[in-house]
Amino acid sequence: MGAEMREGVEHPIAVLGLPINSLTANEAVDALERLILSGGVHQVCTVNLDIWLNALADPHLHRIVAGSSMVFADGMPLVWASELLGCPLAERVTGIDLVPKLAELSARKGYKIFLLGAQPGVADRVARLLERNFPGVRIVGTLAPAKANLIHMDHSEILRQIHAVSPDILLVAFGNPKQEKWIWMHRKRLGVPLAMGVGGSFDILVGDMRRAPRWIQRCGLEWAMRWLQEPIRLGPRYLRDFAGFTRRLPLALFAAWFQRPYPGPTRTATTPTPQVMHVHVSGRLGGEIAAEVQKATTASIVNGLVMVVHLHAVKQVTAAGLGVLLGARRQLLEAGLSLSLAGLSLKTRFVLYAWNMQRLFDEWQPAISRSRPLAAEAESPAPIGLRGK
Hints:
Transcription Regulator spoIIAA
């Protein structure tokens, strides 16, 4: 499979169906600050095995995570999987590690933070803890809404309190998938540059849940200490997560293994038409296409073109290459455009299926162009499956 270099990597890596950014914790904070300064509203996800399985079972959640501005691996199994797939992530980046780092950033730069969720009183305790540990941190609000499902929450009151203090960073501790869906539901009304789900991080920070020592974290066994503290609640969940991971990983590894490494040249060519930006890739679909795909993505957004990536001449597909396409897809979706794939061989379809990627990409069908214009063609993609359409 061959590991790909990660120096300077800006695009995500496709790990078992999720686009995960390959950054260290410190690099992640720098990247999050760039999101704050870039304008707009950005959703950030930290994913572990449980969130991964929830996403695969829930197409809406899957698209939310895939459409987030940044995604970090909050579980060592996902880091291990990236190594086995030949494109290793830099390291595990957890929500509980990012919260104090963002507090330190707030203390240095003055960014305003709002703490939302957890049990009553927990967010207030987290605020006092951060204010004690990071003098100058700007915690401008805390709120623990009454427990309710997404339909019955008092959304207007929550948004009113957030808007009243205009935070730069919103940390949401509703648990998955509620927090991801809540942020996505209100992303256009939040007015907050950076919104991130942090799960049970607040409880661990204040000591209601003990965190494993660093050496246990490095071994990937932090889950065991949490299970010992809440065996009845977490036991069934961890059993499900382990079973799902061990069931899906072998097929993903086989899909990587049975592709012959392609040592030849990789070429990328773009052909714009009035409605479509065509990107033709030949050779290896890997991280080396990132610069050309980014140029094509920028041109597509500037000119209002949908993008079609042609893969008929691709000999090898890598997790880094699919990550490049996922990064382009996210940018295009934010601009109200789309990215579709064309020229899919049976082997490429199998890789997309084995890596849980098939429903994130639509398939462009050139045959439609004989009876309809390209604009209609781009608006009517067919989902990718194992069989040709």
